[in-house]
Specification:
It is built from two helices and no strands. By secondary structure, the protein is an all-alpha fold. The protein has one domain. Helix 1 runs antiparallel to helix 2. The longest helix is centred in the last third of the chain and has 39 residues. It starts with a helix and ends with a helix. The model has no long low-confidence stretch (mean pLDDT 92).
Amino acid sequence: MSINANGSRLETITRELFLQWQQTKDYWKDAKSQEFERQYLEELMASVGAAVTVIGKVDKLVTKIKSDCE
């Protein structure tokens, strides 16, 4: 599996987690659920977005390195 494919997989499973969270919020509607979302899920979504961007750049760099070494 390529580096970029791993980034795509990370993005996909994070999106699945967020969808599950949306369903959970139908049943868990208090201050603690809002705190949990702010403290963990919002930060996770932002961090995964940044990580996927970096993973894409690393994939391009590794591809260039392989090409230069051939």
